[in-house]
Amino acid sequence: MKKTTLLACLAILLLPLAASAYSIKNSDSIYVPKGETIEGNLYAAGSSLTIDGKVTGDVICAGQSININGDVAGDVICAGQSININGNVGGSLRLAGNTINFNGQAARNGIMIGATIVTSASSSIGWDLLVLGNIYELRGNIGRDLYGSAGQVNLSGQIGKNVNLNFGGKNDYTKPLIIAGTAKVNGDLKYKSAKDAVVESGAAIKGETIHNFPAVAAKKSNLANLGWWWGNLISIFSALVIGLVLISFWRQQIIKITDLMLAKIGASMGWGILALLLTPLIVIILFITIIGIPLAFISLALWLIAIYIGKILAGILIGRSLLNNYWPKKKDSLILAMIIGIIIAYLIFALPFIGWILALLAVLWGMGGILLALKKA
Predict the structure, then answer these.
(1) d(CA 293, CA 48)
(2) Are residues 239 and 372 in the same domain?
(3) Are residues 5 and 125 in the same domain?
(4) Quick one: 211 and 226 in the same domain?
(5) Measured between alpha carbons, how far is 277 from 95 in angstroms, rounded to an integer?
(6) 59 falls within a domain
(7) How many C-alpha atoms does 310 have within 13 Å on its Cβ side?
(8) What is the pTM of this model?
(9) Burial class (CB in 10 A: 0-12, 13-18, 19+), 196
(10) Paired sense of beta strands 110-119 and 141-142, if any
């Protein structure tokens, strides 16, 4: 199988929803130089992605470091560790990453999910912006509404209409919402927090300021706590059973997949993101074609299986790494690695707030490892 065969198949299946022209780039380092124009959509996956040229369609990408300095006529849909958008976007933004910096202009909506999100003073979003993350700083302009959930938000830019933010009941920040003197809200300010917002002198809020306090959570009964522990124990033992089956029938394949996951972390995450996001679209297209319904069911089943196995593979990799570093005499015991790794991983996945994020990363990592192994087969 050629290196870009899978991406090509995905792109071809998505053609009814996209422009007729498209480009596919897949390598550790992807670069579109200034002066180059890509006609149609760009599908890219790699450790490092830099676009200095122009794209006349959408950009759908995944990688460790993503830098888009040129203009994109359509949407930008990207996921990575570090994302920097400096160019003009004619459509909407859909970004997920650890650190997101937006310094450009987006004509339509924005969705940003990350630990640290900054929209700089030179940035503007034409319509609405949804933020989900830990820290968000608004220094630029939003044409309509700002809404979402975060740990801390600093507003120093301008919002065309309303602000609606949720800071949760358990927030460790002493100042969850800070509205600087340069901020301007042309509509209502509505926020849910246990602490009052800090509104500096000079800040302009034209509408109402509505402060809602989080509901006081009732203490969980012993029965509820027992149910929580019992549910997690069932998940762990189920994963151990599936892991044992995988090792029994596909030992060498599991070793190869986890080796690839460790050697190519960025590529694994990138392929995992593409598989997670594009497969449902392909399934919908197959359902629409009627004759593709059987293939749609098969694809959906394989997708769900890959999601479940992805977490198990991540657990096995954790166990192998621990044995290799702290118990080298047992490093070849894949069963022991599986038991230790899955127990540790699933306990981490059960943690409140960050558990589901880490579980999602594990799924992406595992699914990407499977695809990388298939490419080499």
Answers:
(1) 37
(2) yes
(3) no
(4) no
(5) 13
(6) yes
(7) 30
(8) 0.64
(9) exposed
(10) unpaired
